[in-house]
Structure formats: structure tokens, C-alpha cells
Design goal:
Layout: H1 13-22, E1 35-40, H2 51-63, E2 70-72, H3 85-99, E3 106-108, H4 133-139, E4 144-148, E5 151-155, E6 159-162, E7 166-169, H5 173-184, E8 192-196, H6 226-233, E9 238-243, E10 250-254, E11 257-261, E12 280-287, E13 290-297
Parallel strand pairs: 1-2, 2-3, 5-8, 8-9, 9-11
Antiparallel strand pairs: 1-12, 4-5, 6-7, 10-11, 12-13
Helix pairs in contact: 2-3, 5-6
């Protein structure tokens, strides 16, 4: 359980009334401040390896948990970045059909595998749906914010496609300027939860053995300019940062803020557990301006189990 001291939300009754008139969604009586939501990330849905059945099972399990909404943490599909436009479109169709089993509001986060053509040659950069366009047509803006009860949520776009069929974790100047402006509008002391697919803070490099085939990907497992992003949080009551991408389950406390990375719905890319964590998702509870989490599994059994890539070379 995470315990953090936070500043009082409002200094006095007069201030509370004034702010309430401006931003009623961020001001609530104490009894209304508690709520729960789901953080479901890295589904990597595809027709193979019973991935669609696994995702469906995860969503049906999630539906049994009392939650106000779900945040999908990215990598909805596998793999729009390296397949034809037609295949990518069919993957997004499969995901959309499966997501209906959640039966609740879903907020979406873009992942690297959700970007059309960026790590292969199957789609030309001149295609109008190349990169993030297909994702935007399906899910909307790649970074945005919303309010729920007393909390302000910020969903970031951590994917920066690079020439030469690659990408990095990075948030460009335009997005950082937007973030500064967005947080400036939040009432002083109001709790903020940030969401990013690629982690801002992680200890993943400590978990992957040097002889693992995953070791070479360590530079891609965090945001390259995370220090710039974290600096923007200063002076704001960020109570949690939710992260995906690395398929591990960890909480790293940095400057009093818990950076919570969730295990993946797909586990070891549908080949079993990853770093001892089975396939699953995270339940997030917000009470009194503090966050606690628990990891929920759903009993998936791989049709093609492989060694845990976190420890063993293939």
C-alpha cells in the first residue's frame, strides 16, 4: 500500500467555493472522492496463439470488477507497425469487437505497436494512414486529458517514430507545451494521474539478464527525455503515473510519486508468464487523494508456451 502526505486540497471554504464554480468535476465531498478504475495494457491482440480468446477472457474477468471506467495503456494490437495496411486494419477491428466485452467507458493510450508501418516496409510513409493516423481514426487524439470526480487524468503520447523503421520513447516540444498548459488549468492541490505507454521511470534494466534476447531492447523501454516530462510535474499534485510497454509489474517511487508499471494482458506475448508475472491487468483504487493497486490474473493457458524471455536466451 502506498502512503503519501499531500497538501490540503483547498486552503479555505471561500477558496473551495470559488474553485467549485469554475471546475466542479474536481471538487467533491470526501464521501464522493473514492473510486476505482482498471488499467489494462499490452493486449497485443492477433488471431494467432489464441490471443483473441485470451483478451476476451481478460475483458470478461475485468467486467466482474466494480470500476467506473478502464484506461487501455497501449499496444492494443500486434503488430500494426510491421504488417500490411489490410492486416493492421483487421487487427484493430478484432480489438474493437473484443473490447465490447468490457461493457464500460474506455480511455485509450497509443502504443508503439499501434502505429502503422513504423517498424517495417509493408506500408509507405506516404500512405495517408501511416504512423499514428490509423490509430487516430479509431480512437481519437494521441494525447489528451479528462476529469473524473476529484481527479484530473492526463494521457500522454510517448511514441516517437524515427527514420529507418524504428521508434523511440519521447515526448516532443509541442506535447510538452500542451502538458504545461493543461496542468496550469488544474486547481492547486487537485490530484492528478498521468498515463503513458512507455515508462517515464522504471527499474526494468535490473530485471533483464544480459544473455536475454530482450536485453538489446533496454534503451527502448523508457522515455528518452523523461527528465523533461517529470520536471513539468513539479508544483502539481501528481499522485500516480501509470505505465505499460515492458510487460513487467513494478512500482518505483521517485520524488514521492509512484510510477506504476502494469503487467501485460498478453504476458510473454501470449507464450506464458513474463518475469514470473502471469497475464493480467491492474485495478486502481483512489481514496482520499491516494492510490493503491492490485494485479488481477485471469487464468490464461498458452497454446505455445516458451521460456520467460526475461531470464533465458531463446
Amino acid at each position: 500500500m502506498l502512503r503519501m502526505n499531500r497538501r490540503q486540497l483547498f486552503v479555505g471554504a471561500g477558496s473551495a467555493v470559488a474553485v467549485s464554480a469554475l471546475v466542479p468535476s474536481l471538487v467533491a465531498a470526501p464521501s464522493e472522492n473514492s473510486f476505482q478504475f482498471l488499467f489494462i495494457t499490452d493486449c497485443h491482440i492477433e488471431p494467432e496463439f489464441n490471443a483473441a480468446g485470451g483478451t476476451d477472457s481478460a475483458f470478461k474477468k475485468a467486467r466482474t470488477i466494480k470500476a467506473d471506467f478502464t484506461i487501455q495503456g497501449g499496444d492494443h494490437v500486434f503488430d500494426a507497425g510491421a504488417v500490411s495496411k489490410e492486416r493492421a486494419s483487421s487487427l484493430f477491428d478484432l480489438y474493437a469487437k473484443t473490447e465490447q466485452d468490457l461493457g464500460m467507458k474506455v480511455y485509450h493510450t497509443i502504443g508503439n505497436h499501434d502505429c502503422l508501418g513504423i517498424i517495417g516496409t509493408a506500408v509507405s510513409p506516404d500512405d495517408p494512414q501511416y504512423g499514428k493516423k490509423m490509430y487516430e481514426e479509431r480512437f481519437g487524439k494521441t494525447y489528451y486529458s479528462f476529469d473524473h470526480k476529484h481527479c484530473h487524468f492526463v494521457v500522454l503520447d510517448s511514441i516517437n517514430p524515427l527514420p529507418g523503421h524504428s521508434f523511440e520513447g519521447r515526448m516532443d516540444g509541442r506535447q510538452l507545451a500542451w502538458l504545461v498548459n493543461d496542468l496550469a488549468k488544474v486547481p492547486a492541490g487537485a490530484p492528478i494521474i498521468v498515463v503513458t505507454h512507455i515508462p517515464l521511470v522504471t527499474a526494468v534494466a535490473a530485471y533483464i539478464a544480459p544473455n536475454s534476447p530482450m536485453h538489446k531492447y533496454i534503451p527502448l523501454l523508457s522515455v528518452a527525455n523523461s527528465a523533461e516530462v517529470i520536471d513539468v510535474f513539479k508544483g502539481h499534485n501528481v499522485i500516480a503515473v501509470l505505465q505499460g510497454h515492458s510487460h513487467i509489474n513494478e512500482i518505483v517511487l521517485w520524488r514521492g510519486v509512484p510510477y506504476i508499471t502494469s503487467g501485460a494482458v498478453c504476458g510473454n506475448w501470449w507464450h506464458g508468464p513474463y518475469l514470473d508475472y502471469p497475464e493480467g491487468f491492474t485495478v486502481v483504487s483512489v481514496t482520499g487523494g491516494k492510490v493503491t493497486t492490485r494485479y488481477e490474473t485471469y487464468g490464461f493457458k498458452s497454446v505455445d508456451p516458451l521460456p520467460d524471455y526475461g531470464y533465458k536466451a531463446s
